[in-house]
Amino acid sequence: MKKVICVFALLALASLLMPESLVAQERYRVGVCDWMVLKRQKLGEFELARQLGSDGVELDMGGLGQREHFDNKLRDPKEAAHFKHVADSLGVAVGAVAMSGFYAQDLTKRENYMALIEDCFDTMDRMGAAVAFLPLGGCGNDWTTDKAKRTAIVKRLHDIGEVAKLRGKRVGIDTPLDAKGNLRLLKEIKSDGIAIFYKWQTIVENGWDIPKDMKLLGAKNICAIHASNSDRVWLSNDSTLNVPLIKNTLDRMGWNGWLFVERSRDISMVKNVKMNYGANVRYLKEIFNSYPEAEVKLDSAGRDSAYVQTIIGRSQKATDELGITWTPLGQNVQNIIANRYFKLNDIYAERDSLKKSDKKLAEAQCDSKLYRSHFGFLADLSIYLKPNEIERVKDVMTFNVLKVTYDAHCDMIPTLTGEEKQQIMAWLVEARELAIDAESSKKKHEVFGKYKGRINNYLTRRGYDLNKEREEWYKRIEKREKK
Fold it and tell me: Pseudo-torsion of CA 75, 77, 82, 83, nearest 10°?
């Protein structure tokens, strides 16, 4: 008995000593809705979720419309097993399964509603989810006052809840009600299998106070949260939401669970999935999970804000390529690349200023600073990235010209020897090293242009008729395109 008490005491002590950020990560998990990031029941949703830095996805059951059943490919156990394997291999969880089709379909008019619910529960079993999302939007809003319709909804939700309990699940409903209204509704339903899938947008649109409403509703009645507002601005820029206060309220309530980003897209770039959802996921993680700041600080002080945003966007292309954007690693790498662009801008600006008095000295100093800083940049990247990943960063920064040019030469001249291919690659790698430090995209392409000329001269000396090789190549390409 003493040993048991000792074990519990040690566990309790461990929880007290555990860093706050780790406790937060156990309590709160952040995900995205697959239908909103344009990946409804697509394998790519898990890789995208990883790139966005989210912990998981709210996976949808597929379209409903006038169909008898959801357009659910995961009804097939083999397909579901494939999805689960990909999700697990990427470390992405399925936090909830959504029946978004009921945003438009009336639950009371579906005679086979229980079959639809069972299909959802089966999918949850296969994907390892314990919470389902059931919106009541298709029922309209008149049911809240129409006694007959409300009775029909309550009866069906009671039946659904009882089946959910038997299967070890909870169904979170989305209603247009405040806490008082939801508590009254849950009391009528009389089933612990039904809870509220809380939605910030609903509360904001009705002018209610989110912290007060959540507190009144109670932690046990909230099974998950759609942590976003209507499309206008990102969560971090939304003056109608006090997210830190919401987090503090949930802390005091003792709530834990999933927060899913459904909307809150910046309307100026509403179609940019990665920017919108990446920004919102990162913000929620910063607030709820003590998301660590980047170790590498962005050298943006005193620079034009529009220019800084342009450079950040340019740098993010590399972290997107590596699939690490919106992660702590990605933020460090992105800042290293952005700082490199800032450094290049400073070096060339200083050169242009000095040129007015001494052109020769200006060029000499510029070359010296580029040479020294070039290796410092690569050394900084090596702290966070593997050699092959650094190569990919270089390719992104030089528009992938190396690969395109090398592949084109190999395709144009199929008889190239291994030695010749090696020489072509060596020159293109050298060109890329120089192009990384060029002051503009035009100058980068000019660097590669010079080396392409060197490659062509080399091949000519090796006995290749490049005009003939190019003509035959174009013919082969034309044949391939016709096929």
Answer: 40
